[in-house]
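Deliverable D5.2: sample structural annotation.
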Amino acid sequence: MSQMPQQAAVSKCPSCEEPLEPGDRFCGACGYDLSVVPARPEDSPTLAIHGVVPAPDDVDWPVARDSDGHGHPAPVHAAAELPGTDSGGSPLPPPPPAAPPSAPTAPAAPAGAPAPGVRFDRPGEPEEYPLQAPDPRLTAEPAPVPGQAPAPEPAAASRQSAPAAPDAAEKVCVACRAGRVDDDGYCENCGHAQPRERDHMEQESGPIAAVSDRGLRHHRNEDAFSVGCTALPDGAPASVAIVCDGVSSATRPDDASLAASRAAGETLLGALPRGTHPQQAMHDAILAASQAVNALADEPATAREQAPHQNAPACTLVGAVVTAGLLVVGWVGDSRVYWVPADRTTPPARLTEDDSWAAQMVAAGLMNEAEAYADERAHAITGWLGADAYELEPHTASFKPDRPGVVVVCTDGLWNYAESAEEMAEAVPLDAASRPLHGARVLVGHALDGGGHDNVTVALLPFPAPSQGAGSA
């Protein structure tokens, strides 16, 4: 801000610091023209340095550092023109302890960087204005602008560009890893849509584990699983795994698979401790799952009128129960159970038969297995859970393996990439019995590496070394 020269009212010469008399226009010692000393503005502005605002009566105008040799002082510099110093060349003083808490101290500027500047603090105005336009040589970076002091509390809040870290209990964005996720599933920081909960699921329960993934081609995951552990009446442990695959051509296949897996799992975990034989418990669990899926078709008449072409929700189911020396499997549809022995020199086995067009062709002797599964109708299922199923025929079987191994329960999203028992055994890690969750992840990765054309779900149940020989119950 420029001002017109006028007679100064100072007590000493700004050049040589000799005392002055009131009304002097020139210094009697050095001849300094006192009219070039700017008078105090009438609106009494104060200079804020590092947030410190001196009282108007305490303002002491700076003294020129030296004379130019002709009786004239060196040019007077404003503090904003000298980074890191005041107009007298002295370092800027730190704020006194009595400084208001709402005026934070500006951090020290690194070497070569512009120093914190100066602003007018105008009472009653939240905004602040620089003394003068900044020197472009001092503003090569958009960091602190010369001529600007740290803002008071309202302005300081505006400098916080990064979002506050979410609480530990809140869901964090998978994209920016910083923003909170709102109730609609979008990041409040970057706006990224979050993956749905069922896109990838993992669960470990005692010695068993399961993993489900949406795959690389489907827009949602229509698979579901249920795993758990319980004890028989004699205290022997029992492990349960149920895997369901929603029928994509049906309405709400994801709801069907979820309802079936929960109903079957709860039925098994409730029946086994009561002494129900595992094979009978598996049969009852499939019936309970069927009823749960059928219930989804009970819709108001108005809903059916609005969507007359919708069919009933449907899914397939496969499950396994492992107890001491006994393995029970049950299924409806084309999901499968494989037996992979710990000793890989002994042959693995597939323990289920598909309810599918291809399996019927092979059973009737009309095609061999390779020809049937190469046909485009191969995966057309002939059995499923749902209100429009032709006839519910739960399949169950019991086995007594004579050696330890791993039971693989999976949907066709996995066995499409490891169809034979030998191929499945090759894909199962050698340490799957001791690390079932890791093994399930590896198998899901095997399907995704193969193309991931379908949803992929697999559960692994270690089978302990039996105390008696092999047999079939």
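Annotation notes: The radius of gyration is 41 Å. The mean pLDDT is 77.
The annotation will be released with the project's public dataset once the embargo ends.
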